[in-house]
Amino acid sequence: MGSFKSSIFILVLHLLEGALSNSLIQLKNNGYEGIVIAIDPNVPEDETLIQQIKDMVTQASPYLFEATEKRFYFKNVAILIPEKWKTKPEYVRPKLETYKNADVLIAEPNPPGNDEPYTEQIGNCGERGERIYFTPDFIAGKKLRQYGPQGRAFVHEWAHLRWGVFNEYNNDQKFYLSNGKREAV
């Protein structure tokens, strides 16, 4: 399982509206494959954003591996870039990946100034989320003080997306007692 740094990344050129609306994620030999990260067409062209996305996923993989007691890691990710960005030889056309079935969306903050990462969850606790949202400034590391390292935040949001984990923050009571032991909320 020592292949964190050899994760495969595919760059694709177009954001196509396809018939698929479900995620392409599969778990094979403990590695998540088929994760689609799409850059919104309204995000200005920035080549460094692609490398920053790769870095985030590469940093997140060992966090996920440790958090899941060495069960899961990120094996490969497809990054969809807007059609209006410049063409490059290393970009390939998407096969099944579409903007509609993207698991992660990189988009400008809405409302402006709100760079908080979040996962759209419309179901109950334990039900899979819809999509993770990050902003370009978050991906670029400009929000480290507010939200922490991008890789850790990605794993946090991944728990919302894949397993339907809800946030359980309590600013008034930071700890609770469990079997006589003090536990963090």
UniProtKB/TrEMBL annotation:
<dbReference type="InterPro" id="IPR013642">
    <property type="entry name" value="CLCA_N"/>
</dbReference>
<feature type="domain" description="Calcium-activated chloride channel N-terminal">
    <location>
        <begin position="25"/>
        <end position="184"/>
    </location>
</feature>
<keyword id="KW-0732">Signal</keyword>
<protein>
    <submittedName>
        <fullName>Calcium-activated chloride channel regulator 1-like</fullName>
    </submittedName>
</protein>
<feature type="signal peptide">
    <location>
        <begin position="1"/>
        <end position="21"/>
    </location>
</feature>
<dbReference type="Pfam" id="PF08434">
    <property type="entry name" value="CLCA"/>
</dbReference>
